[in-house]
Design goal:
The protein has one domain (3-258): 4-Layer Sandwich (Glutamine Phosphoribosylpyrophosphate, subunit 1, domain 1). Helices cover 20% and strands 35% of the residues. It is built from five helices and 15 strands. It has helices at 16-23, 59-67, 129-144, 152-167, 213-216, and strands spanning 3-14, 36-42, 45-51, 70-78, 94-98, 101-108, 173-177, 182-186, 191-196, 201-203, 210-212, 222-227, 238-239, 244-249, 252-258. The strands form three sheets. Strands 3-2-4-1-12-9-13 form a seven-stranded antiparallel sheet, covered by helices on one side. Strands 5-6-7-8-14-15 form a six-stranded antiparallel sheet, with helices on one face. The protein has a two-stranded antiparallel sheet with strand order 10-11. Strand 10 and strand 11 form a beta hairpin. The longest helix is centred in the middle third of the chain and has 16 residues, at 129-144. The two termini are 26 Å apart. The relative contact order is 0.19.
Length: 260
């Protein structure tokens, strides 16, 4: 299956070191060779980069790593195709507009018997179950909140309940964001780590490198990294339980809920 990566920060930061460890799983240290994508939030939405080549050897991924783009919210994905061909339209993250904002979505898992009826507003451009689920979520949000975006607490509860329902159709690990917050749901595997002062030296699993975070961050920096599986060997990663949702904003965990 695919793998997910996300970051929520107090102030704009580069995900470069974590992305390097993550992209190695796209054909070098793991089997996710069927494309990749990454998106960085900005005041007007997202800057999105996608490539159907394996992330580990992608020239575009090399460029992204060297650019050290800073953002408060970053989402990335490496793909192992199970449903849908290997092409750019099937690479995550997927983007749609809702309530005059850009929404991004990444999915890890299979929804083999998932066939919702969609109206004409939200229609997949590719042929993955992932994009289909994204369109279904946005269609139902638009239907249930016709007057616009609700409060974050109400939205979080709605997303959790909707994710639980979709997860009954298969494996549904997701990251969803409108650039201001980052919502996650775990069906099987997901974990997060908090990074704040005093920053430590971290050791990456996939690149056999270490980085002293105190050199690259100020005392008031704060961030959360979310990944399908931990990227480092010497940090405290908080592992999700199946059916658990968490929502992050400005580098803080602000809402969490488990399926009971």
């Amino acid at each position: 299956m695919c793998q997910l990566l996300g970051m929520s920060c107090k102030k704009p930061a580069s995900i470069g070191f974590s992305f390097e460890g993550f992209r190695a799983r796209g054909g070098r240290t793991d089997e996710h060779r069927d494309g990749w994508g990454i998106a960085f939030s900005n005041p007007n939405g997202f800057d999105i980069y996608r490539d159907e080549q394996p992330a580990a050897g992608s020239h575009l991924a090399d460029h992204i790593s060297k650019a050290e783009i800073k953002a408060k919210t970053t989402i990335a994905h490496i793909r192992k195709a199970t449903i849908g061909e290997v092409n750019i339209n099937n690479c995550h993250p997927f983007e749609r507009k809702l309530w005059n904002k850009s929404w991004l979505f990444c999915h890890n898992g299979d929804l083999k018997n998932f066939s919702p009826v969609l109206d004409s507003r939200f229609v997949p451009e590719g042929n993955t179950d992932s994009e289909l689920a994204f369109c279904k979520l946005l269609q139902d949000l638009n239907r249930d909140f016709p007057d616009g975006e609700p409060t974050l607490e109400i939205l979080f509860d709605w997303l959790h309940n909707a994710s639980v329902v979709i997860a009954r159709q298969g494996t549904f690990n997701i990251i969803l964001s409108n650039g201001e917050w980052l919502y996650t749901f775990c069906s099987t595997h997901l974990a997060y780590v908090e990074r704040q002062y005093p920053f430590q030296e971290i050791e990456f699993i996939d690149t056999a490198t270490s980085v002293d975070l105190s050199i690259h961050n100020d005392q008031d920096d704060r961030m959360v990294i979310i990944a399908t599986h931990p990227l480092t060997r010497n940090e405290l990663w908080n592992v999700y339980t199946p059916g658990q949702s968490r929502l992050f904003c400005n580098g803080h965990l602000v809402h969490e809920k488990a399926n009971t």
